[in-house]
Amino acid sequence: MNALKVTTIQSSLLWESPKENCKHFENLIAAVTDGSDLVVLPEMFTTGFSMDSSRLAERHHGTTWQWMVSTSKTHNVAITGSLIIEDSGNYFNRLYFVAPNGESHHYDKKHLFRMVNENNFFKAGKKRLILNYKGWNICPMICYDLRFPVWSRNTKPKYDLLLYVANWPMTRAIAWSALLTARAIENQCYVVGVNRVGEDGNGLPYSGNTAVIDPKGVTLNQAKPQQKIIETTSLSLNELNEFRQKFPVGMDADGFEFVG
Known about the structure:
260 residues, alpha/beta, Nitrilase/N-carbamoyl-D-aminoacid amidohydrolase, 7-stranded mixed beta sheet, 6 helices
């Protein structure tokens, strides 16, 4: 399939309220009626960016994952977003990607935001995830990962779409927008960044600035700051591959050995 319709949901989150947030997003996903292939939710979409990991954590493939699987099947759309997970005695900021056929993948946030001690409450992931969905290679990441270009470098196997789910504060909105564009240009890929709006339980404001950017750095869709909004953007794999063939900058990229 050439086209991929991606729906971004920029919304406020109820603080530390998994059931209420799932119900909220269930209603929003049900409102997506344009034949979307993928719905992208923010980081920690069930709780907000809380460090109360021991109290809020769910088991791997627990309640919210089951909700994602059921909702994906009901509405025939893939769903992705991150939440707090306990697995083998450790806590992770874990992103799930579930498809309507029940296929599921997960990615654990690599870069933990030490400025609020995320690294003291969660364990860092060690592996990137590149999954295939409807003929697209997709690489999902989480918030602070955006600041580290080596982690997202588009080496073999190549991906076509780079996803970021986030709770990125209003005070650093300029960096969010600039880095999303940079990741698209340097990796010759589409980039989708989904951020929340509203205030969290610590009174920290979020402006959203959710965006979809093409491989040339052109913004295809951008939500207005502080607005709750659902947008669907159609991405073209043919256009991406044609651009890569005409402008094969990757052939001159510097090689490196990654040490995690």
